[in-house]
Amino acid sequence: MSSTTAPPRAEPTPPAPGAPPRRRRAARPDRSVLALMVPALVPVLLFSVAPLVYGAYLAFTDARSGRNVDIGFVGLENFAELLADGDFWASFQIGLVWAVGVTVLQLAAGMGLALLLDQDLRLRWLARTLAMVPWAMPPVIVGLMWRLVYHPDAGILNATLRDLGLISGDIDWLNDFSVALPAIIVVGVWTGMPQTTIVLLAGLQGVPRELHEAAEVDGAGAWRRFRNVTLPQLRPVVATITSLNFVWNMNEFALVWVLTQGGPGGRTRLPMLYAYEEAFRYGFFGYAAAMGVAIVIVVLAVLAVYLRRQLKELR
């Protein structure tokens, strides 16, 4: 029985000297991969991208509430009105104080708690679980709970301060012009600290132990080891979590709405609360959409400056 042998495979012809290198054909994406991505992309397009595009479109119109109301294109008229709106800029300043204050305090408190949970303590698993409780609670429940804590007559905070002899009367924490904003900042820190703690704890566990041991052999104390070893290793993690926290805090709505609804006298009215009032209390949807676009632009500008500075320090 005769056997057939396959012809030898032709060797590729090497390119001539001086000829440009051959370009490889770009690999075409597998259709099955695209098909698997569609179920994930459709909700994102429907519930994130489409509302964002529609909101940006409304910012250039005179859309308002009512039946059979014609929507007209007004160009930059809403943004021109926004520049002259003193109430918006007042709310924006309050929003910056809130966002920066909560973000910085979340970082400080989260760093301290992450360093503590990174130690070899007894029942460490229980402490890590309890640290996640504020993050797992809905903002509405958190707001209602802290309203009870801050209650001027029956609140546990005033009762504790009276027992310690620090105050003699009652402080209306959420309705006093001087303490309302610091009071809600404390709530914001308590609510968002767990996510910062978990991210920083993951970063701490990625720091090589050999670096700490070498620094300890060189006689470095706990503070010097943290400043010269831990903190430089955590800088990318810190830049990421502070950027995310700033964006989330600048867009906060539900927690502050439940606590104060922007009062007293607009002292805690964040930009998102002001935009909500313009849209759903007064019916100026186009003007409220312009506020949202302006907030996004400013937040992106602040993040660009911050991240650029952080990247320069990492190089």
From TrEMBL:
It is found in: Cell membrane. Residues 9-20 have a biased composition (Pro residues). It comes from the Bacteria. Residues 1-25 are annotated as: Disordered. It holds the Pfam family BPD_transp_1. CDD domains: TM_PBP2. It is a multi-pass membrane protein. The keyword Cell membrane applies. InterPro entries: ABC_transporter_permease (IPR051393), MetI-like (IPR000515), MetI-like_sf (IPR035906). Keywords: Cell membrane, Membrane, Transmembrane, Transmembrane helix, Transport. The chain crosses the membrane at residues 33-60, 96-117, 129-149, 179-202, 234-259, 279-307. The keyword Transmembrane helix applies. Residues 92-306 form the ABC transmembrane type-1 domain. Belongs to the binding-protein-dependent transport system permease family. This is Carbohydrate ABC transporter permease. It comes from Nocardiopsis sediminis.
